[in-house]
Structure formats: structure tokens, C-alpha cells
Amino acid sequence: MKIIMIAPTPFFADRGCHTRIYGQISALQRLGYKIKLVTYGLGREIESVETIRCFNFPWYKKLSAGPSVWKIFLLPFIAFKAKKAIKIYQPDIVYAYLHEGACVAKFCSYFHKKPIYVFDCQGSLSGEIIQHKFVKEGGVFHKLSCYLEKRIDNWFPVVTQSENLYRQLKNMGVSEQGMINALDAVDTRLFTPREPDMKLAEKYHINVSQPRVLFMGLLEEYQGVDLMFEAFRQVYQQIPQTQFIIIGYPNIEKYKRLAEKFGIAENTIFIGKIKFEETPRYLSLASIAIAPKISTSEGDGKIYNYMAMQMGVVCFDRLISREIMGDTGLFAELKNTEDMAEKIIMLLTDSVLRKTLGHKARLRAEQELSTDLSAEKIDTFLKKLILENSGNSKKR
Fold first, then answer.
1. Fewer CB within 10 Å: N-end or C-end of the chain?
2. With DSSP H G I counted as helix, E B as strand and the rest as coil, what are the percentages for the chain, rounded to 5?
């Protein structure tokens, strides 16, 4: 079966949305799907993913998440590139990521009726632009985005990444018959438990005999990173030998200054941006990981990776985080830094609890959250849609 995927994002940029796309493509390829990905003109090439890139403005270099005016201006270019790819490749499925991708797919559907169009929804459009402070909450543009979001969510059959998002879409009028919750997922072949990578530890002056806590993700306030650093400050006051390992970008200088302000700079190691393929090596540097995301609608891909690596995980208490981890991690009250610090200290001081939760997390990742299981759900959903479409065609 042939699929054209549409991803209006600078694939591949070694971050959450992209790792989800890459994981789905890899797993679907193992099931025999032939896939081409239409994406922006910037991003890192991945050998196993055949990409078709649209024109890019020479001055536009943004790889980080979040809305941008230039992304909007690029939509016509990716739309015409996708339209051309559909005409040439004649896919069975057009699979669109993000609300912008659904808009591109809608445009293409006016010219190419035969493929089945599917929308992979990764969160709330209106919620995202508020989190990124792109528009004013309650303002005209926010209300417009809410209206557009509701319309877009009802255009095509939908694949969701969490039960929480599934329920939100259902409440917005999306038919259950036209949705599948495939869940976010992790490649449990790539992410496996392992001993600390001593070459990396030596490179970054990490003492593996001391307690270590790790964060991996975007360094942004809306991701809960400011709150996490406040929790780290409180952990340091009680266990001053703790090392804090920070993997991610952007705003590294901002958080270096914050670490200085909190008096934890000497114990904080900023590694910066890394390649996705090398992530397991870096995650091996600690047995405790933090997921401080505060959004109530977005998923959190890093948690899946932590779990597959058999790490003890502390996150803020969100419905989506509970859906992902079940009883395999510790939950701090949302935005409560004292509670987060307390939960981190519990894992630092109780090795039995840490190991027990880590083993349970790995088992859950293998049995319920692998990319292969997610791809099988998508495969079943796509085949159902094709069968239904075939039946409707015969009736006509």
C-alpha cells in the first residue's frame, strides 16, 4: 500500500513531533507500506525516509517547535508540492500531520478524489498558539483558531496520540467511527536499558558515582522547564552532590543564567542538541528522568523513551502523563515545584523504588507502548477505511 505523508514541519529536527513521525514511518515500513514524506525545505535528512521537500525562504531557519508567520507563508508551497506528489505517485492514502497538514490535504482533496485522506492530530491548535503566546487568549485570532480547529478536526478520519485527545475530539463532534487512538509510542528495539556510557560521562565530566537526574526536551517556559529548575534548586539544598543533566535546546544561555541564580550551576551539565539516533547513549547517563510538561492537551514523547530505558520517571500530574505511565512513575502536583522536588528525592534516596518503577516502565513500554503496536492499530484503521471506501464505490 502506498502512502503520501504531509508534514508541514522542518523534518527531521530531533524533537518530539518528528520522532513520532519517524517512528510511525519506520514501523509502517516494516508492515510493507511504501511511504513518501512531503515536508519543508529545511531539516536533517534521514536515510530510511524518502522526503520530498518544498521551497524554503533562505532566511527561514527555525527548527524549534511552535507557530511562525513564515510557516503560514510556506503552506502554499508545500500544498502544491503535495498535490504534485499525489498526481505522480497515485497513493492509496494521504496521511496528514498537524492541523496545517490537514489544511494542505484538504486543498489536495479538491484535485485528487481517489486517495483516502487521514489526519494525524497531535494536540490542540488553539491551545498551542496560546502556549506559545502567538495570539492573545480570548482575542479575535484566538476565537478564529478555535473555529478553524473544530472545522479541521471534522474533515477526515483522525488518528490520535492519547485517550485525553481522543475524548476532546469526541466532545468537539468528531465521530468515534472515524477515529483511532493509536497512542504515541517508542521503538523498544532502539531504546533499551544499558549501563552508563562512560565515554560520554568522561566527555561531559559526569561522575557516575554521584546521584544524577536527567531532562531531555525543548528548553522552553511553556514546557515547564522554569518550574523544573526551581525543583532542582530544592533538591540541591537537600542532596547537594546531585548532578542535573540537561539535554536539549534552545535557550541554553537563559537556563545557564537561571542555574547560576539558583546556585546549582556547578552541578548542572548542559549537553545541548543531540541526534535522535544517539539518544539512548545519552539517556544512559542517569537512572532518574524528569518530564515537567504542563500543557493539558499535548502528549509527551520523552516519557516513552524514559520508560523504555527503564528509568525512574517524575512528571507533573496530567491526564496524558497518567495515561502513558500508569503506575510506573511518580506524579507531582501540577506546577508544584516542592512536590516535584520531593518526588525526585524519593527516587534518589530509595533505590528499590527506583528500580521497581523502572522495571515496570520497561515492561509497559514493551507490552503496550511500542511503535510496532501503534503501527498495527493504524494499519487496521487504514484497511478498514479502504474497505469502507470500496464498499461505497460499489454502491455508487
1. C
2. 50, 15, 35
Q: Model-level pTM?
A: 0.85
Which CATH number covers residue 112? 3.40.50.2000
Q: Is residue 190 part of a domain?
A: no
10 Å CB burial of residue 239 (0-12, 13-18, 19+) is middle
Cis, peptide link before residue 280, omega less than 30° from 0: no
What confidence tens digit (pLDDT) does each residue in 175-212 have? 888 999 998 899 999 999 999 999 999 999 999 999 99
Check if the beta carbon of residue 6 is closer than 8 Å to that of residue 104: yes
Residue matched to cell numbers 489536495: 108
Number of domains the chain contains: 2
Residue 16: pLDDT band by 50, 70, 90 thresholds? confident
354, 287 Cβ separation under 8 angstroms: yes
Q: Which pLDDT does position 134 carry in this prediction?
A: 58
Question: What is the rounded CA–CA span in Å between residue 69 and residue 41?
Answer: 16
